[in-house]
Write a structure and sequence with these properties.
The radius of gyration is 19 Å and the shape is globular. The longest helix has 16 residues. The chain is α/β, with parallel strands linked by helices. 14% of the residues are buried. The two termini are 34 Å apart. The chain has a 5-stranded mixed sheet with strand order 3-2-1-4-5, covered by helices on one side.
Length: 155
């Protein structure tokens, strides 16, 4: 716990779980990697979800643990409002976007494909060999004009 007060930058992960044996009780937990401690839980109201719970709880977490610097979470938390709250408070974020969120994953692949392809060798047209990223030479998908990255906060 002393490290929580003395370290300058800590990494915190948040994740929600339904409590076993407690029907309908769902909590969001914050775990600090550097010291292997869960620093808090927030009960997720049945009318809300984990994202809205974190938005309401974030200020208290940062006030209690000002060294929390990097928020790690799954793709559910990749939300513009949450990113802006973090950015405005000088914090950073990292979201794990998996293929169980195909729309978000596709938008990110499109958004970052020019960066990944710049100066890289030709990518194969065989989907099974090219991995999850879009082929650099593929045609622009119709959704290109509708991209609204969920956490593209103004620089």
């Amino acid at each position: 716990v002393i490290q929580l007060a003395t370290k300058r930058r800590l990494v915190v992960s948040v994740d929600g779980k339904t409590m076993r044996g407690c029907e309908g009780v769902h909590v969001l937990s914050a775990f600090v990697h550097d010291v292997f401690i869960t620093v808090g839980h927030c009960q997720v109201d049945v009318k809300n979800n984990e994202l809205s719970c974190l938005r309401g709880w974030l200020g208290e977490l940062i006030e209690r643990f000002p060294a929390l610097w990097l928020l790690r979470a799954d793709g559910l938390f990749a939300d513009r409002t949450l990113c802006e709250l973090l950015k405005n408070d000088g914090r950073e974020w990292m979201f794990a976007i998996k293929d169980n969120q195909p729309n978000l994953l596709e938008k990110l692949e499109i958004l970052f494909s020019p960066i990944l392809c710049a100066g890289s060798p030709k990518v194969t047209d065989e989907p099974e060999k090219r991995g999850p990223m879009w082929n650099c030479e593929s045609t622009t998908p119709s959704s290109w004009t509708n991209i609204n990255p969920p956490c593209a906060c103004p620089a």
